[in-house]
TrEMBL record:
Keywords: ATP-binding, Cell membrane, Kinase, Membrane, Nucleotide-binding, Phosphoprotein, Transferase, Transmembrane, Transmembrane helix, Two-component regulatory system. The chain crosses the membrane at residues 12-32, 299-321. It is found in: Cell membrane. It comes from the Bacteria. InterPro entries: Bact_2-comp_sensor_kinase, HAMP_dom, HATPase_C_sf, Sig_transdc_His_kin_internal. It comes from Paenibacillus terreus. It is a multi-pass membrane protein. This is Sensor histidine kinase. Residues 318-370 form the HAMP domain. One of its GO terms (molecular function) is protein histidine kinase activity. It is an enzyme of class 2 (transferase). SMART domains: HAMP. Its EC number is 2.7.13.3.
Length: 596
């Protein structure tokens, strides 16, 4: 009898029901959490390393741009042949080199050797050094085809000169950008330029990418030499880790792999500029620390749950019968049609949960019944409002026709013509169809421009250029007016005199139509044009940054693009550019049915 009792069976069942799921849950949670942590950490660090690579590329690009200042100085290449006898030429060359040194933070020194003059120049924070030499100090540097080469981190040296002063910092480590100065457009090599750059900027960028003590970061060149590492002793040395080098040597620019009890995330920089690779090493101990901690917590919870289950089962087995009988009585009342039964909950155990869920279910049923009634009432109200909304446009259209007739009676035909154009514009906009013939769209924009002519007079001219046959093609409705409106809103300026608005349609292929809307008004500032393109082509569900005000949103153009895409699929396109000397051009590509 003891083993057949409800208490024993319930106790055994509760122990099994609690212990087995908790143990399974703890195991699965640990495995899933490990996988989730790996995926999450990989994704976060790929984005972090990518941003670090972008920052490094921007810094290297700024140094590269500074190095080509020698080509921006119209007299620099000529001065290379005049030194050392022409002191003015030497002074101008020094000024250019000093400008390069001060252009980008972190540049320690600038060295240049002129082959024609046989002279080397070193510019540092102190007085410049010059000397006659037959060969360049950097003659052995392996310049690439684009005449640019970045030398890995190394201690600073003096390029054969004596110490230029205490401010030079000769014990610091730098990396060097080498550039071959050529006699453009010929490939003849006039001089060698070497720019020593301090690791301070690279160090400040890299320190934001990892946690010192628990993670490691390496910045390697294409030969595996360490440009930067948290371990300062490795800088300038070749990294002795064949597995890591093999993991990043593939053709992919970024990725992640596991090796040596650690996760490695890497990102390659522009190969044409530096060929560097950022590698972040995350040990498993750091990667799975949260999973281990969570498993320890789950183990404690499992032990506590088993203890509570043993005690709770003894109490539940005694008090389980009465609540069930009470619940049955409630069900009988509800079955009889009494939906507003007052379900009282006294217990806090599983039976109490059932009571509360059952009461919530009945509340939901009652709320659904009331909601259906309110929805039906709201639907009737909306139908009435829709009928009223249909009356107003027709009333306004008929009123305009009456005013036009009155204008004819008083012999004012221009007013009648304008009212007629406005009425036809309203009738066109009230059409329920979303696709119209291009000739209808062209007639609509012609009437719209007729109204604008009355407003602006001779401030602009209009030109239409339709290729034969294109007016019979079908296009989305109301795609020209938003673009033309932007011309009157942003492009017209009395300081430009009379401007021209040109609208043209050509056939690009049997099933492709191109509409061109261009004007000779004001151009769009380049920064605004870039912002406009970004807002125009962002995804429909992408968030707009708070700094971009609502009025900056190109609602009209974006609406046109969306309707063209709905009509033409991926073949639909909207492009906006400036034209010279001033003006804006908008191009719409629309797919049409292929003609026989």
């Amino acid at each position: 009898m003891k083993f057949r009792s409800i208490r024993f069976r319930l106790s055994a069942f509760m122990l099994a029901a609690v212990a087995i799921p908790l143990l399974l849950s703890m195991t699965i949670t640990f495995l899933v959490t490990k996988q989730s942590l790996r995926e999450q950490t990989t994704g976060e660090n790929e984005r972090l390393i990518f941003q670090g690579a972008v920052n490094l590329e921007h810094y290297l690009q700024s140094v590269n741009q500074a190095s080509i200042a020698v080509y921006k100085d119209p007299h620099f290449l000529t001065n290379l042949t005049r030194i050392p006898n022409d002191y003015r030429a030497a002074a101008e060359i020094y000024t250019t080199l000093e400008t390069i040194r001060n252009t980008v933070p972190g540049i320690v020194s600038v060295y240049m050797h002129s082959y024609d003059a046989g002279q080397s120049t070193l510019v540092t924070g102190s007085a410049p050094k010059r000397g006659q030499r037959e060969h360049s100090y950097t003659e052995g540097v392996p310049y690439r085809s684009n005449s640019l080469y970045i030398e890995a981190s190394h201690p600073t040296h003096l390029y054969g000169f004596s110490s230029p002063g205490p401010a030079y910092g000769k014990d610091a480590k730098v990396f060097t950008l080498h550039r071959s100065i050529q006699s453009i457009p010929s490939p003849r090599r006039l001089a060698d330029l070497a720019i020593d750059i301090s690791l301070d900027t690279v160090r400040s960028i890299c320190r934001e990418l990892y946690q010192e003590g628990s993670e490691q970061l390496y910045l390697l060149d294409s030969a595996g030499v360490v440009i930067y590492s948290g371990n300062e002793t490795l800088i300038g040395q070749k990294l002795e880790n064949p597995e890591l080098i093999r993991g990043i040597s593939g053709e992919q620019n970024q990725g992640a792999f596991e090796e040596g009890e650690a996760l490695h995330v890497y990102q390659k920089l522009n190969a044409d500029l530096s060929g560097w690779t950022l590698v972040k090493r995350i040990p498993y101990e750091t990667l799975y620390a949260r999973a281990t901690r969570l498993t320890e917590i789950n183990a404690g919870i499992t032990g506590a749950a088993l203890s509570v289950a043993i005690i709770g089962t003894l109490l539940i087995s005694i008090r389980i019968t009465q609540p069930i009988k009470q619940l049955v009585r409630y069900m009988e009342k509800i079955q009889a049609g009494q939906l507003d039964v007052d379900i009282r909950v006294t217990s806090r155990d599983e039976i109490g949960v059932v009571f509360r869920r059952f009461r919530r279910m009945m509340d939901t049923v009652n709320n659904l019944i009331l909601r259906e009634y309110r929805l039906e009432l709201a639907n009737k109200t909306n139908q009435l409002k829709a009928l009223q909304a249909q009356i107003n446009p027709h009333f306004l259209y008929n009123t305009l026709q009456s005013i036009g007739t009155l204008a004819l009676q008083h012999e004012v035909p221009r007013i009648y013509s304008l009212l007629s154009s406005l009425s036809r514009i309203m009738r066109y906009s009230m059409k329920e169809s979303t696709v119209v013939h291009l000739k209808d769209e062209a007639e609509h924009i012609r009437m719209y421009l007729d109204l604008q002519k009355e407003r602006f007079g001779d401030q602009f001219d209009v030109s239409f250029d339709w290729e034969p046959g294109v007016l019979e093609e079908q296009v989305p409705k109301m795609i020209l007016q938003p673009i033309v409106e932007n011309y009157f809103k942003h492009g017209m300026d009395v300081r430009l005199g009379k401007t021209l608005l040109r609208i043209a349609g050509t056939r690009m292929a049997p099933d492709m139509l191109r509409l061109t809307i261009e004007n000779t008004g004001l151009s769009i500032p380049q920064d605004r044009l870039n912002q406009l393109r970004g807002l125009l082509f962002r995804k429909p569900d992408a968030a707009v940054p708070e700094e971009q005000a609502a009025e900056d949103e190109p609602i009209g153009l974006r609406n046109v693009l969306l309707r063209v895409r709905l009509h033409s699929g991926e073949a639909g396109r909207l492009d906006i550019t400036n034209i010279e000397p001033h003006g804006v051009r908008v191009i719409l590509d629309i797919r049409t049915e292929e003609r026989e």
